[in-house]
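sorry for the late reply, my laptop died twice this morning and i had to redo everyting from scratch. anyway the thing you sent over, i finally got around to it. pasting the sequence first so we're on the same page, its 106 residues, then the predicted structure underneath. double check i copied it right bc i was rushing
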Amino acid sequence: MAVGDGLADIVGRRFGAIKWPFSRSKSLAGSAAFVVGAWAVSGLLLLWLQVTGCQTAVDLLHHPVEPLLKLLLISVVCAAVELLPAVDDNISVPAAAAALSWLLFP
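ok and here's the structure:
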């Protein structure tokens, strides 16, 4: 999620002309960058952990669709949580990611 947050800031500042109506400091482009960055890096991290033998519960090499869709869902929800104005996203986004990971990857 850290990569997604960093990309959201960079892309949002550069290409973020269209803002969310309920969160004027956040942009659609930044949110999209969050989702893509978080999803891609999470998938690569999961793959690396599998290849190095550190995790064996998720078989990303032979059955990639289901875990990648789960990671996409987690990334989308975390991007939505980041948009909440009354919550510190440095706490809420990792908490959401951890809770969803626990639920989706038992």
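The CA atoms of residues 70 and 104 lie 7 Å apart.
thats about all i looked at so far, will dig more tmrw
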